[in-house]
Each structure stands twice: as structure tokens, then as C-alpha cells.
Amino acid sequence: MNVTRVALAGALGLSAALAGAATPAVAQQEILEKELRGLDVVAVLNAREDTMKGMKRAMSELAKMVEEEAPFDAVKAAQLAELIERNTRAIPVLFPEGTQIRGSTALDAVWEEPEAFAALAEEATGKAVALKAATEPASTADDIADAFKEVALSCRACHKDYKKPF
């Protein structure tokens, strides 16, 4: 692990710890913004990539539960939903001006249409909040299926306009 990754892990670790506390979402976002400000472009790209990969893994695990490919685990589902909510809240600050460099899968539209991008991120956060709320009383995958699908649709909508296709 290089020095940038270590600094990044520390910065994101602090944010993750705060997210677990009763820190208001706006304060969490401000703290993450400050932490990212001190990092170079590569470190910000790594933070962005790590955040998105974490969400992808969480969504994949939840999808297996919802599609009955894996047994439903209410505790695990709640943890995954919390991670998704925390990561969706981080999206707007993970795309600061000046980080649209070669190698990034983000399209220039992220920086050309910042208000629209932020609106989709906010919508995704709202859907993630609803998913997290659905996990709290959940005892079966059916209890979270609709909320999960809404998050997945929100992710797809943003990726359609703001991420390079594979």
C-alpha cells in the first residue's frame, strides 16, 4: 500500500467512524470534503474508486439476498444498507473540479453538469435512506426488495449519464 492509499484510508476511516456516530449527514460531508482537500488527484481518484467498488460489492451481496441466491441475513442487510447510504452521501464530494483525468471512468458531464449530477446523487441518497429504513424491521428479503430495486435504478440512472461504458 503506498503512502497515498494510507492517507486515504485514514481519511475515509475517520469519516466512516463519524458516520457510525450521531453526526449529521451535512457534517459528515463537510469532514470528508476537508479530508479530501489535502490529498492529491490520484488519492481522490482512489477514494472515489474505493467508494464506488464498496457500493458495488454491497449491492451485489444484497442482490443475492433479494434474488434468493443467498440466505437473507437481516443484520448483514442492515450493515450493507448503511454502507450504501454512507457512500451515496459521499458521491458529490468525491468528484471535485480538477479530478477529471485520463483513467477515470467518470464522464466530463459530471463537471459540465454539476447541479444535475448532484441531484442524482441526492436522489440516490434518498433511496439508500429508504433501503436502510426498510432493513430495520426486515425479516425476509421481500421486506427490502422494493427499496433495493429503487436504489439499483438510481445507480443505473446516474451511471447512464455520468460513467463511461465498459
UniProtKB/TrEMBL annotation:
Signal peptide start and end residues: 1-21
Superkingdom in the source lineage: Bacteria
Gene3D superfamilies linked: Cytochrome c/b562 (1.20.120.10)
One GO process term, biological-process aspect: electron transport chain
GO terms for MF: electron transfer activity; heme binding; iron ion binding
Keywords, comma-separated and alphabetical: Signal
Name of this chain's protein: Cytochrome c, class II
Organism expressing this protein natively: Caenispirillum salinarum AK4
